[in-house]
């Protein structure tokens, strides 16, 4: 029989259930903070997420197909969000690719201004985590990165740019190693979103 994570009776005796419920609370905190910022700027949460993502990632990732995978939503959902962002003059569609049906999403000057004023929506969460001791942060990150990687391996998260899934990563008895940087990696140096990531497959 499957465990019922949100049953308080289960949580009394099952630590995994408590942790699952706790992660859901953290997820709710992100949603609340993102919604507050979205309402303040007359945007939807996914529109802000698209703008922030495009601002910080390579342009080859800034297209409808990839963004749908990135945020685990349908292409029509991304297309609708992009259409609104275009109407608000926050993005520019670059149709210069060989495929005339596809385009790359670029930020306009106005879009960059909105990113500068919205990407701090998770600052309260950062501040709380930053109050943890260094060793606590390292252990929390180690466990989170492991769980996130496992979610990817099970197909729950479709996109993963972590060291563990990268062709440059290797692990030995001595720990983690990056063959691109040609150096060992400490636990806290493992990346969840690496710009140099290349899939093992």
TrEMBL record:
Record's keyword terms, sorted? DNA-binding, Transcription, Transcription regulation
Offer an example of a GO molecular function term for this protein: DNA-binding transcription factor activity
Going by the entry's taxonomy, the superkingdom of the source organism is recorded as: Bacteria
Tell me which stretches of the chain form a coiled coil.
none
**Any matching Pfam family:** MarR_2
Q: Which residues form the HTH marR-type domain?
A: 16-149
Q: What protein is this chain from? A: MarR family transcriptional regulator
Tell me which species this is from. Answer: Flagellimonas allohymeniacidonis
């Amino acid at each position: 029989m499957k465990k019922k994570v949100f049953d308080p009776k289960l949580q009394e005796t099952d630590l995994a259930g408590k942790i699952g419920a706790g992660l859901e609370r953290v997820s709710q905190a992100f949603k609340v903070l993102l919604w507050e910022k979205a309402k303040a700027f007359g945007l939807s949460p996914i529109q802000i997420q698209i703008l922030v993502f495009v601002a910080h990632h390579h342009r080859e990732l800034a297209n409808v197909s990839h963004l749908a995978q990135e945020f685990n939503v349908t292409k029509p959902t991304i297309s609708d969000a992009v259409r609104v962002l275009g109407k608000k003059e926050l993005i520019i569609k670059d149709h210069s690719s060989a495929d005339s049906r596809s385009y790359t999403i670029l930020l306009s000057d106005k879009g960059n201004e909105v990113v500068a004023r919205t990407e701090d929506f998770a600052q309260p969460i950062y501040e709380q985590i930053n109050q943890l001791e260094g060793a606590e942060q390292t252990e929390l990150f180690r466990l989170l990165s492991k769980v996130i990687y496992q979610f990817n391996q099970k197909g729950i998260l479709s996109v993963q740019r972590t060291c563990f899934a990268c062709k440059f990563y290797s692990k030995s008895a001595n720990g983690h190693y990056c063959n691109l940087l040609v150096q060992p990696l400490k636990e806290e140096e493992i990346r969840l979103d690496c710009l140099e990531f290349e899939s093992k497959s």
